[in-house]
Amino acid sequence: MSQQEFASHHASHRSVDRALAELRSRIDRLDLPSLEADLGFPLAEVMSFYEGELAHRFPISFANPRQFLGRLAEQLPLSDVAAFLLCAQGCDWRTTDFFFDEEYRAGLRRKQEQGTLPLFDYLFFFAFPGWLATQERFRIFQAHMQPHVMDGASLASVPCGRMRDLLTLDYTRLRQPVRLVGIDKDEGALAGARELAQKILGKDSRVRAEWRAGDALRPGMTEPAAVEEFDLVTSNGLNIYLTDEQCALFYANVFAALKPGGIFITSHLVLPTYYRWDCVKRHHVQLQTVVWKTLINPLWESFLKPPEAVRDQMKRPGFVEVLIVPDSQGIFPTFVGHKPA
Of 112, 138, 212, 254, which is most buried, counting CB atoms within 10 Å of its CB? Predict the structure, then answer.
């Protein structure tokens, strides 16, 4: 694994090696009975599932639960996304975009056909329910944003990352240009968005894209402040890392940035009790849970909440008719709020 592979998201051989060494130490110290009580199922059940469903494609040797966890840990650095999660316990703009980048996914499919796909690339992109819901959520966003692509509209993405959410909408029927604004406090993300815009839009005169450095948690978000400026604001991947107080501030800032009658589209990971369990593959959820609780400890796990709680938080600054749109598994619902006209 080369240093260059991590250039876009600031991980390195050293940080991965250090994080892996710390993880191995944690696995050695794990109280397995307490872990299984926390998980709500025995590790033997997950091990049996792995041996029956995955071992023929991703062979790892293990004789007991602790060894199983250790062998899984050894596979993390082989995946670019998994290695970053191991270090950061969350995704940045580039790793998030991997899940919506069809070229990247096509490359993973080729590796899968060739038998060279790393275990965690398979799990993250093709198996784990949470990540499948992430990819479906992107398509749900697209479906709810597209009707608001109208002549002369101003659409914003906060934080924008590579701004693939707006850049990949259909602008072919416009007679007057639409304005796209990407807001992010990460200069790397803004540069990535500009690069992707050039690739997707080229010199399309129907779309005028601009980017601003800004902080979604700061009143006004950008300098000058965004006040009643946008017809639509979209945001994914930020509020899952925010406290309730921070969410309240973020939603109030978005409300202020929208024109009267404007639309806010966001999403949030919910508690497992709200999953559509008849549509979820239980063993995949179990393996995903083992990975999260023992290997990654993602920061978003602290901020899971009922969908009704997200809706209520959006209503506090003034959003009305907040629509909850679940994905097919009920894991990562979309929320569509309206600012009164």
Answer: 254
Domain ranges across the chain: 3-127, 144-274+304-338
Helix (H) or strand (E) holding 211: strand 207-213
pLDDT higher than threshold 90 for residue 12 = no
The whole-angstrom separation of Cα 278 and Cα 264 is 30
Domain 144-274+304-338 in CATH 3.40.50.720: no
- Give the Cα separation of 119 and 324 in Å (integer): 34
Query: In this structure, what DSSP letter does residue 154 have?
Result: E
C-alpha–C-alpha distance, residues 219 and 225, integer Å: 8
- CA 113/CA 194 separation, integer angstroms: 33
- Given a contact cutoff of 8 angstroms between Cβ atoms, the answer to whether 125 and 99 are in contact is yes
- The helix-helix angle for 282-290 and 43-53 (nearest 10°) equals 120
State the Cα angle at 143 between 186 and 108, rounded to 5°: 60
Q: How much of the chain is in helix, strand and coil states, percent to nearest 5?
A: 55, 15, 35
State the Cα–Cα distance between residues 203 and 325, nearest whole angstrom: 34
Specify whether the CB–CB gap between 328 and 77 falls below 8 A: no
Backbone angles phi, psi at 263, to 5 degrees: -120, 135
Name the pTM for this structure: 0.93
CB hemisphere CA count around 216 (13 angstroms):
26
334-338 β-sheet, strand order: 207-213, 178-184, 154-157, 230-234, 258-267, 334-338, 320-325
The 10s digit of each residue's pLDDT in 124-173 is 999 999 999 999 999 999 999 999 999 999 999 999 999 999 999 999 99
- The structure tokens listed for 96 are 């998030």
Residue 304 CB neighbour total at 10 angstroms: 15
Q: How far, CA to CA in Å, does 247 sit from each of 115, 181, 268?
A: 43, 21, 11
Kindly state the average pLDDT of the residues 33-50. Answer: 97
CB 137 within 8 A of CB 334: yes
